[in-house]
Specification:
By secondary structure, the protein is α+β, with helices and mostly antiparallel strands. It has helices spanning about 10-20, 50-65, 100-115; strands spanning about 1-5, 30-35, 45-50, 70-85, 85-95, 120-125, 125-130.
């Protein structure tokens, strides 16, 4: 399940809902990861542009990849502005076995940072400034990767 939201994520609502959706699925592990915008370099927050078709394809690839292990993936991400100390990213793995969940969440979050078509901007004095120094070019994206 991939969810996109305008603005910051409501972490308690999303995590509680995801847990409720899977509570009877006989999973032995539920491992969430919550990404929070931290104050650094005088920013007021971050702003995100998302290229949804490629993000959906990337996410669907991960769902297919983890299916043989019995794991389920869920992800939520923000579009637009997210202020300091608010959440812009949540990922979760549900799995019959804890080792699968632990390894999957680590690999998934790292690949998300390297491959997801999401562009990040610093919010400084109500302006969006591309965060080039903290961005990772997407392989094969051409002009979209810069």
């Amino acid at each position: 399940m991939l969810e996109l939201y305008d603005g910051p994520l409501n972490v308690p609502e999303i995590l509680t809902r995801w847990y409720a959706e899977e509570v009877d699925s006989n999973y032995g592990a539920y491992i969430p990861f919550v990404g929070t915008v931290r104050e650094e370099g005088g920013i007021q927050g971050l702003s995100f542009d998302v290229y949804e078709p490629i993000l959906k394809s990337w996410f669907d690839g991960w769902v297919t990849k983890v299916a043989p292990s019995g794991a389920t993936l869920k992800m939520a991400h923000s579009r637009g502005d997210v202020l300091v100390h608010e959440s812009s990213y949540i990922a979760a793995v549900f799995s019959p076995k804890r080792r699968v969940a632990l390894e999957t969440i680590d690999q998934f979050v790292e690949d998300f940072k390297a491959s997801a078509p999401i562009w990040k901007y610093d919010l400084v004095n109500a302006e969006r400034i591309y965060a080039r120094d903290r961005s990772t070019p997407i392989s094969g994206a051409g002009i979209l990767g810069t």
